[in-house]
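INFO batch 0412 | record 1 of 1 | parsing
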Amino acid sequence: MTDNGTWDNQEWLYSAKRILEWIRTVDRQQPLMLLIRHSHRETLQNHDEMVSGGLTELGKRMSFELGRRIPWQGKMHIFTSFVPRCSETAEAIAEGFSHEGGEVIDIDPLPTLVGPQIIEREVWSNLHPDGRNVTDFVNTWVSGGFGVRMEQFANYQERLLGDTVKRLISQNENVLDVHVTHDLALMSSKRILLNRPLTPADREPYLGGLAVTVSGADTLLHIAGKTLPIVLQ
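INFO prediction complete | emitting tokens
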């Protein structure tokens, strides 16, 4: 069952819609990956809910709609954080993609997509449960503000790039890799790929995110409606 009217009327889907439009311009022989935030959820009230919160019914329906609207004729491999709102998003995207005749190779949990390792629990007190200050949190982390109480940013950068962009570059098969993650990991990826401090405007809405493809010798990042080459460290 499709849900065109609701999809058209959700303002927070603007980033997802931009990504879909861009995918239509990509040569189908180019490797392609998406890194997206989970779908619509209830407001998180405390830090315990950060690891237990799932999707609303609207979130599940819009994840399905995203899956069925992805303009890709090849196979899809989905990687996800194990947290319910991400795994539920991944499952609904797979259902939507399959509904339109697409083939989903698998849905695999990927620990990197949960986010960086927090060594001391008190670090979480610096991040609003609902992620409202996530860009400031990442900037503080990059500058060393949390010291050894949190995984070093350079270490997480290596893990995140290795599990996403670098894997894309190394694969030969024509597969669309979809990574479903959280605010923190998504904002960390923006900090890495854009190589600049984040601003509040960088925060992505539900189902928003970024895309990467490889064209010849160039690795191209599509983000916020723009496409630019990136050089990996």
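INFO post-check: Residues 84-99 form the longest helix (16 residues).
INFO record closed
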